[in-house]
Amino acid sequence: MATLGTPQHTIAILQKYNFRFQKKFGQNFLIDSRILDKIIKAAGITQEDFVLEIGPGIGTMTQYLCENARAVAAVEIDRNLIPILEETLGMYPNVEIIHQDILKMDLAQLAREKNCNAPIKVVANLPYYITTPIIMGLFESRMPLDGITVMVQKEVADRMQASPGTKDYGALSLAVQYYSYPKITAHVPPNSFIPRPKVGSCVIHLSKRQEPPLPVSDEKLLFAIIRASFQQRRKTLANGLQNAPGLPIGKELAMQALESLGLSPSIRGEALSLEQFIQLSNALKGMLVY
Ligand code: SAM
Fold first, then answer.
1. What is the pTM of this model?
2. What are the backbone angles phi and psi of residue 45, rounded to the nearest 5°?
3. Is residue 92 lining ligand 1, measured as CB closer than 6 Å?
4. pLDDT tens digits, residue range 11-36?
């Protein structure tokens, strides 16, 4: 069976199985082998690696992963794709096709059972409707993670990589940068997919941080502060925190904490670096009486 990364082979398989794309599953299949090469290279896959692929589709990228990695687990939600994957991946002994919703899987258990709890590389052309829950789920799961290399909507990649003070900087930038070092490695046009998405795409590599950039006293409080700070972008940080539901922080306390860090009381959330958000949450943690 020829490799799939061309329009002709992809169309032939889709026709053979009379496959109907399901919009609700974010199905845009890659048909450009140069992009597949770039993803494998950005992920730094070697023959030692165990790779988790999210949403293999008809198995286009999975074939590349099987050729380059030691073992691959491919998790696909659409039951109509399973018989196709059994054909397109039939010649690879190192792949396991798992018919599941990635958001419902116990990823720590997968790592224990399939890879002796050693770090896993995640590679995916993600379904765009659930990019953020998938990425945050991977970081927050107790699955040992080596790195994540994913195709996402360009606008989302820009937000993940954004620096303080830019228009794209926000809660997603901080959450991703708390867990990893993001780097956009390729820009991908809509005509690299069938069907063509309405938006541009990027490959982004998220190399896992071993530790947060500074010690954090209360991770939950840190993320609640970050979310509250970007809820209303035009408000000052002190006002944003004061109005945040569920955060027992009055304006006085917020201003006091900002002052203790040498920050202006009228500063906006978008001006603070991740390190400064950590310092602010640590300072507030010390001042709060629960
Ligand atoms: N990897 C293939 C490719 O590059 O051609 C397909 C990528 S397509 C953008 C996204 C894939 O994720 C689809 O096959 C879709 O059915 C699958 N998918 C969508 N939601 C999923 C979920 N919750 N769990 C697992 N797979 C999912």
1. 0.95
2. -70, 135
3. no
4. 999 999 999 999 999 999 999 999 99
